[in-house]
Amino acid sequence: MLKNNKLILNGILGFSILSLSIAYFVQYILGHKPCNLCLIERIPYFSALILISLIFIIRKFEKLIAIIVLLFFIFGTIVSFYHVGIERGFFSESIVCDLINSSDNLSKDQLLKQLENATVSCKDVTFRLLGLSLATINTIISIVLSSIMIKVIKNYGQNR
């Protein structure tokens, strides 16, 4: 593995841990319940943790795994951008935003239980940092991480 790539991948690994830690801090310590899209936006960070660790452990297929990590961050960019669009009213909420709420002939007890566990609307911004929603921040971060992963992949094409 190129020394430069090792440093960059360690940085992305650390940043993924930090990002997930902040997400769980906001959720469990500050008490802001995430919407379904917020939960989906965590997938690229979990994937980066697993896949980059795999690069360091098996030391094979490094470029292929890096491409998969890039695809996860591109996925994160698209989902985050869509989420920002919902927050700003450019897009309407999709079925993903309401996965738990089904209105199939519920009993009174089931309805009360469902109200207790009601999902947060994807258009409601429950937490802001520096005046920006976490979806907006995640869109920017996902674009940056995708760009960094492109650099890592290009580095694998260079002579060692």
Describe this structure in words.
The structure is a single chain. With 160 residues, this protein is an all-alpha fold. It contains six helices and two strands. The protein has helices spanning 3-29, 36-40, 43-58, 62-87, 108-116, 134-156; strands at residues 128-129, 132-133. The protein has a two-stranded antiparallel sheet with strand order 1-2. Helix 1 packs antiparallel against helix 6, helix 3 packs antiparallel against helix 4 and helix 4 (62-87) runs antiparallel to helix 6. The longest helix has 27 residues, at 3-29.
Q: Any idea what the shape is? A: elongated
Reading off the top of the CATH hierarchy, the class is best stated as: Mainly Alpha
The profile of the biggest β sheet is: 2 strands, antiparallel
The CATH level-2 architecture is identified as: Up-down Bundle
Q: What order do the strands of the largest sheet run in, or round the barrel if closed?
A: 1-2
Strand content: under 5%
Total domain units: 1
CATH topology: Bromodomain-like
Topology (elements, then pairings):
Elements: H1 3-29, H2 36-40, H3 43-58, H4 62-87, H5 108-116, E1 128-129, E2 132-133, H6 134-156
Antiparallel strand pairs: 1-2
